[in-house]
Write a structure and sequence with these properties.
single chain, about 170 residues, mainly alpha, 7 helices, about 75% helix, elongated
């Protein structure tokens, strides 16, 4: 099960890298048309922004799974192993709560935006663009559940770095 989860996170990280390349390509095409062809494209700026949002959302899921978000390691190291465990569980529950709110509220947003289209390309539905939010909310819920299972089972997680006191206690 853990290997499947880790593999999925690796695919998500690769997808984020592809999004970076797509955004780079869109921006380069836009710059080429504006300064070489001397005809600005109406859509490239808008879609570069959408890709940036997608990249941020998927990247935040990968960052959460890998334990790369901001943390207070110095404070955690001052706690005893039991205190560190309690704080990690509380932290994970807070992230799980936020992710659940993101999932539910963004799902409502996607349903609300179902009829709207992109400004520069009316064939593109805004619900497709906004779909990244409930998808990533669900993925963050998944990451939170996996982290809670890992914390309660006592397994070594491949994500968040463990404070030194917890490593010494084991």
């Amino acid at each position: 099960m853990r290997k499947t989860y880790d593999r999925f996170m690796a695919y998500l990280q690769a997808f984020s890298a592809v999004l970076i390349l797509v955004m780079l390509g869109v921006v380069l095409v836009g710059v080429f048309y504006r300064y070489v062809v001397d005809r600005a494209l109406s859509w490239y700026d808008e879609f570069a922004g959408y890709i940036l949002v997608w990249l941020t959302m998927y990247g935040s899921v990968v960052g959460l799974a890998r334990g790369k978000h901001i943390s207070f390691e110095t404070l955690m190291e001052k706690l005893r192993p039991r205190g560190q465990r309690v704080v990690e569980i509380f932290d994970t529950l807070c992230v799980l709560g936020f992710s659940s709110v993101l999932l539910v509220s963004s799902w409502a947003l996607v349903k609300e935006m179902a009829a709207d289209t992109a400004v520069s390309v009316p064939e593109v539905k805004m619900a497709w663009i906004y779909s990244v939010m409930p998808i990533c909310g669900a993925l963050m819920v998944l990451v939170g559940v996996v982290q809670l299972i890992t914390l309660f089972s006592g397994e070594e997680s491949s994500g968040r770095p463990r404070p030194k006191a917890m490593e010494e206690a084991q």
